[in-house]
């Protein structure tokens, strides 16, 4: 992203949306697609998992991510909405989870 440019989603939001759309993606691919370092993506994934928004399931040498769309958004102004509302608004198909 260019210096001085801003976006509506935080890095956490961007990683969360990417995982919702691509639950079997690797941190390498996620980092490339969202424009963050692989270490940064790993940290965000660990924080999302610690907060209960995602669960990592090991499948052989890969991870599969399961999201919990029913959980509330974190900010006090947004807590009346589940994260699934945001994901659906951004085109994520979360009905099967």
What does this structure look like?
Helix content is 40%, strand content 12%. It has 97 residues and is α+β, with helices and mostly antiparallel strands. The protein has one domain: Arc Repressor Mutant, subunit A (Orthogonal Bundle). The chain has a two-stranded antiparallel sheet. A hairpin with a 2-residue loop joins β1 (54-59) and β2.
Sequence of strands across the biggest β-sheet: 1-2
Number of helices: 4
> At CATH's second level, what is the architecture?
Orthogonal Bundle
The CATH topology name reads Arc Repressor Mutant, subunit A
The number of distinct structural domains comes to 1
CATH class bucket: Mainly Alpha
Mean pLDDT comes to 92
In short:
By secondary structure, the protein is α+β, with helices and mostly antiparallel strands.
From the structure above, extract its key features.
alpha+beta; Arc Repressor Mutant, subunit A; 97 residues; two-stranded antiparallel ribbon
Topology:
Layout: H1 11-21, H2 27-34, H3 38-50, E1 54-59, E2 62-67, H4 83-89
Helix pairs in contact: 1-2, 1-3, 2-3
